[in-house]
Amino acid sequence: MDGIVYLYVFVLAAFTGYEVISRVPVILHTPLMSGSNFIHGVVLIGAMVVMGHADPDSPLELAIGFFAVLLGAANAAGGYVVTERMLAMFKSGKKKEGE
Amino acid sequence: MMTAKWLIDLAYVGVAVVFILGLKAMSSPATARKGIVWAGWAMIVATLVTLFWPGMHNFALMIVAMVIGGSAAWWSGKQVKMTDMPQMVAIYNGMGGGAAAAIALLEFTRGEVHGGMVALLAVLGALIGSVAFSGSCVAYAKLQGIMKKAYRFPAQNQLNIGLAAVVAILGLAIATADAPGMGAIALFFVLALALGVIVTSPIGGADMPVVISLLNAFTGLAVGFEGYVLGNPALVVAGIVVGASGTLLTQLMAKAMNRPIANVLFTPITGEAQGGEAIEGSMREMGSLDAAATMRYASRVIIIPGYGMAVAGAQHKVWEMTQLLEEAGVEVVFAIHPVAGRMPGHMNVLLAEAGVPYDKIFDLEEINADFAQADVALVIGANDVVNPSARTDKSSPIFGMPILNADMAQNVIVVKRGKGTGYSGIENALFYKENCRMLYGSAQAAIGEVITHVKSMED
Questions:
Q1: Which residues contact B310 (CB under 8 A, 6 or more apart)?
Q2: I need a labelling partner for B322 at 20 to 30 A (CA). Which of A68, B128, B165, B428 fits?
Q3: What ipTM does the predicted assembly reach?
């Protein structure tokens, strides 16, 4: 891959991240941290690719790949559920009755 | 084959765009939920198209791993109580870091990366990912109560720096070697994991929000770097966006505590070790009936919730009490310290869950001047964030941290389980003040009693 192009991608993505979060009210900080936690769960697809190219006859490679996919999937699924639960409360915040 | 790869890349571009739009939508309460749902669909699309990546095998095992990891996390995320959310965010974040580190490990094991920028970023991602993984496990253990005390190693800072230097040198050697040996690689990962444990172990509860946020940013960076190694722009964009936004969020939090990030990491708050001035006087107790009367006949009450409210799950009771007081003509508002609870915004989430409208909730800067006009400041399970020593006592470990000026109110009522110190272990000068009364009991029970008494006072 072309290094300098990636350098541009790094820099632009960094600015984007900074810009997107700079106007977030304090009340959404926790859900937002959780939401960004979900988004880096995309590491799952990287884990899938490396596991997909692991040598099927090497238990070590398969084990590491398995571990990577397992953790990546947990990051994505867990991050989603937790964020969604928090934000669902904000949506119906005013109407919801106490338990 | 080329067309398949081209279509996958195109899908990834769309996924990256939706992720960014999703994050953007999450920045406003009205659109926040839509944001996470969009991002969720993008993640599903990303996962599905990746199955068609050219030249892949091991599908059966891969799907087993996805099902186990995904469903276990999904289930635990659904089960967990709202109050335990911070440690769940920590642990899922750690898993992401672990996945990034494992990707690097597999690439090295297969001898896919050696030399140049690729190897350097692979090593860097592996290091950051490993630290995020083990550090998040420690953060989880602390918040979950498995690991009770902050543990300081002898010569902590030298140990941190020394180990970091060894890991860095070893990493550099691996990155520049033509064919790094498996022994060196294994040692590198073990030491990187140990570094995460050693750096986070001494950090006290008060600093936990900053640490979780920092580790979240770390994982983002690690994912971005491994994305470069794999030539996967979707990983690069998502990872770096999270790395940058996470860094900004960490800075905002550290600023709110007036503790530079370096201080959080290298000079942890430990009350026993650093002390602060001894406090004169004694704590005075108050019954729930007196507390109810004081608030019922006040004109302005400011409620300061803290972790104690979260632990007791008392937010619904607190809102019920608020409504009763409002019916009696009392003006009630909430004051939230930026680091109240274990994560920024933690209290806002809990209050929103109970149904408290946003317009009753105020930040530190918005409300601090109002305490002088308030009849009652009701502190529910908060401690360090209302400690006036932060303003007055130069020797206090939290000196300089902005606090909510609860002590300026006419009366201060503190709902607290017992006489002990807060999570940071520092004595609170507020509790010994002339205008302060302690209402002992769990927030749930204590507020419940207050509600009963307020009801009995209705005309």
A1: B83, B341, B342, B346, B347, B350, B381
A2: B428
A3: 0.90
Q: Does B309 touch chain A (CB under 8 A)?
A: no
What pLDDT digit, counting tens, does each position of B326-377 carry? 998 999 999 998 778 777 778 888 888 888 988 898 888 889 999 999 999 9
Nearest to B239 by CA among B99, B379, B366: B99
Please judge whether A39 and B39 are an interchain contact, meaning their C-beta atoms are less than 8 angstroms apart: yes
Does A84 contact chain B (CB < 8 Å)? Answer: yes
**Interface membership of A97 toward B (CB under 8 Å):** yes
Residues A50/A67, Cβ–Cβ less than 8 Å: no
Residue of chain B whose alpha carbon sits nearest to that of A37? B93
Q: Taking CB atoms and an 8 Å limit, are B316 and A99 in contact across chains?
A: yes
CA B203 to chain centre: 13
Grouping H, G, I as helix, E, B as strand and the rest as coil, residue B259 is: coil
Annotated catalytic residue, options B84, B178, B375, B384: B384
CB contact (8 A) between residue B220 and residue A34: no
Output the CA–CA distances (angstroms, integers) from residue B313 to A96, B398, B420, in the order listed. Answer: 16, 27, 20
